[in-house]
Amino acid sequence: MSTYQHILVAVDESPMAYAAVEQALSLAKDLNSQVTIMSVIAIDPFIGVDFYKVAPAITDYFMQAEKNAKERLEDIKNSFVRDGIEVNSKLIHGVSPSQGIIQVADEVGADLVIMGSHGRTGIQKVMLGSVAQNVLTQSPIPVLIVKV
User: Helix 97-108 and helix 131-138: axis angle, to 10°?
Assistant: First the structure.
């Protein structure tokens, strides 16, 4: 088994993301790995529309989503710092979550991605898609999917 020197942990607000964080903490401690935690603010579904002038409430929603994501990343980052693990965080916008995860993994030189999965199956998976599935099939590096 190769030693993972740089682990990318993709998080959102779900309990599965926090389970992935716990796995990353354990693995990073055992392997003395550097960690980057990241989150993606979802693509605006109204790209190309003069949406922000028309709907200030939605602008507020996206601003709140960014604020919440920054706070979540900072809280998670502190968990790694407390354990003496070298950690950075990254928040990105304008791409799909799976694209963002793969892009950041490449940017930071990660050699392992850890992320949670909602574990949807059947019609839910077809209708809603699966970020974990997309990352798993598109990533050139190993991906550890954590399910609760």
Answer: 40
Give per-residue pLDDT as tens, 79-128.
Answer: 999 999 999 999 998 899 999 999 999 999 999 999 998 766 655 554 44
The pairing of strands 6-10 and 34-41 is parallel
pLDDT tens-digit map of 45-81: 555 445 555 566 667 778 888 899 999 999 999 999 9
Domains of the chain: 6-146 (3.40.50.620)
Q: What is the largest CA-CA distance in the chain?
A: 54
Q: What is the 3-state secondary structure (H, E, C) of 19-38?
A: HHHHHHHHHHHHHCCEEEEE
